[in-house]
C-alpha cells in the first residue's frame, strides 16, 4: 500500500459538501469513485477539513492508501480524466509516509470568506460569493475581528451539530480586507468549530452594516451562548484555502 | 426622450453574443426586453462594442432613448430586477446629452484575455478562461506582442466576416502579464477588427509554446494575409473591459 496525498480544488456549488453521504453528490465520493475507476480499489479518503454543502476548496488536502503501483503524476492525470465533468481537480499528488495523516497531522487551516459588496445583481460570481447590498464599514469589521483573535470559548459561533470535544479554540488571525467592491475575510487557526467561520463572518457583517457595534461583538463572544449569534453567513462565500503541516 | 447610458456586466456563457439575433439569446435582447417590461417602450440599444458568442463584459457601455420619466437609479434597479436570473447586471446608469453615442463617441476600447496555464482541469473557471496545459513563456509572448503595437495593417488577425472599412488600426497597448498560473493579455485601441484580440492572443500563445519564434509574429503581421494566422483563441477568455470617451 502506498499513501498518496492529494491537493484538491473544487467548486462546491453542485455538491452536498466534502464528506460522503447517503443522499446527494459529495467531493469525497467523486474522488473515491475516480480512484475506484482507475485502480479497482475501494479507498477511503481522509481530508484536512470537512466542508458544508456549497462551500468551496482552493487547496483541500486529503490522503488515501492505494495498492496499485502508479507514479503520483500518472495517478493524478488518470483521476482528473475520470473526474470530468465534475468541477473537481487534483492539483498535486505526492507519496507520503504511512504515519502522515491529512487530518491528524494538520497543524493549521486557513479559510477565506468572500463578500461582494454592491447593489447590482451577481453575474460571474453567483454561488461563489455572498452578496451584501448595504455598504459595509470594513474598518469597523476588522476592528471587531481582532476581538475574536486568540484563545476563546467560541460557543456563540458554533453549530448545534458541532462534534468538537471543546468549544475553546485559538484563532490565529482574522483579517478583513477590502479591494473595491470585493471584501475578503481571511481566517487562520489550528482547527475550527463547525460553522465557526460563517458565524464569525455573519456577525462581522452586522458590524459592517452598523447593526452591531464593535463592542457588541465582544459581548457576543464573552456570552458563550449560541442564542447570541447574530447571523450565520451563507456557504457561497466560503473557501478552504490551505492546510499546514509541520 | 431621454438618452440613458448604461454600464453593463455580463457572463457571456449562455449568450450568442451581444448583438440581437433571430436565433438564440443575446445580451442586447435581454436588456431591451427588460426595458420593454419596465417602460412599455421598444428601445434599440447601441453599444461601444459587439462581442461574439461566449465573450464576456466587465463594463460594456450602451445607450438607449426612453420616453418614460424615471430617474437613472430607479431605471437601473427596475432593469436589474427584470434581468434576473440572466447573468447580466446594469452597474451604472446615467443621463447623457442627445449627441452622446455609446459607439460613435467612443474613443478607446480595452479588452483583457485570460489564460489559465496549467494541466489540471478547470473548476470555477470553465468557460471563463482559455486553459493552456503546455507551459507558456510569457516573457517571449510580451516581446512578440510589442511587434503588434502601433499602426499596422492587421489583415492577418481579421475575421473573414469583419465589416470594417479598413484593416489598418492603431493598437495602443498589448501587455502580457503572468500572476502564478494566471496569464492576462491586456489590449487597448481606438477600435479593433472582428476577432482581432482572439487572433493576436492565439498567435501569442504559439510564441509562448515555442511553436512560433518572436520573429514569426512579425512576419505574420507583415504578410497581411489571413492564411498566415496561426491560431484563433477561443471566446471563453475574452472580456470587454472598458470604453473610453473624451
Automatic annotation (TrEMBL), chains A, B:
<dbReference type="Pfam" id="PF01416">
    <property type="entry name" value="PseudoU_synth_1"/>
</dbReference>
<protein>
    <recommendedName>
        <fullName>tRNA pseudouridine synthase A</fullName>
        <ecNumber>5.4.99.12</ecNumber>
    </recommendedName>
</protein>
<comment type="subunit">
    <text>Homodimer.</text>
</comment>
<dbReference type="GO" id="GO:0031119">
    <property type="term" value="P:tRNA pseudouridine synthesis"/>
</dbReference>
<dbReference type="GO" id="GO:0160147">
    <property type="term" value="F:tRNA pseudouridine(38-40) synthase activity"/>
</dbReference>
<dbReference type="InterPro" id="IPR001406">
    <property type="entry name" value="PsdUridine_synth_TruA"/>
</dbReference>
<dbReference type="InterPro" id="IPR020095">
    <property type="entry name" value="PsdUridine_synth_TruA_C"/>
</dbReference>
<feature type="domain" description="Pseudouridine synthase I TruA alpha/beta">
    <location>
        <begin position="8"/>
        <end position="104"/>
    </location>
</feature>
<keyword id="KW-0413">Isomerase</keyword>
<dbReference type="InterPro" id="IPR020094">
    <property type="entry name" value="TruA/RsuA/RluB/E/F_N"/>
</dbReference>
<dbReference type="GO" id="GO:0003723">
    <property type="term" value="F:RNA binding"/>
</dbReference>
<feature type="domain" description="Pseudouridine synthase I TruA alpha/beta">
    <location>
        <begin position="144"/>
        <end position="245"/>
    </location>
</feature>
<comment type="similarity">
    <text>Belongs to the tRNA pseudouridine synthase TruA family.</text>
</comment>
<feature type="active site" description="Nucleophile">
    <location>
        <position position="52"/>
    </location>
</feature>
<dbReference type="InterPro" id="IPR020103">
    <property type="entry name" value="PsdUridine_synth_cat_dom_sf"/>
</dbReference>
<feature type="binding site">
    <location>
        <position position="111"/>
    </location>
    <ligand>
        <name>substrate</name>
    </ligand>
</feature>
<dbReference type="InterPro" id="IPR020097">
    <property type="entry name" value="PsdUridine_synth_TruA_a/b_dom"/>
</dbReference>
<keyword id="KW-0819">tRNA processing</keyword>
<comment type="function">
    <text>Formation of pseudouridine at positions 38, 39 and 40 in the anticodon stem and loop of transfer RNAs.</text>
</comment>
